[in-house]
Amino acid sequence: MQKFTDFINKYGIVFHGLSIVFWLWLISNGIQTMQTEELPLTKKLAFGGLIMFLFLSIFNLYRAIKQRNQTK
User: What does pTM read for this prediction?
Assistant: First the structure.
């Protein structure tokens, strides 16, 4: 467990930044699909889940930056 926390402390900002890019890519693909065809409710709920994970990644990035600034 210590190795994992050391990895997250060292590369957390990069990891969370890349996850934000990934979620934005998935959301942009979802928006393009929504514009071209009518989606059922389950896919619309999944799209809402993507947005939730995006906000979670942004919050985690904020925490990683705040933690790095406190340790300096």
Answer: 0.73
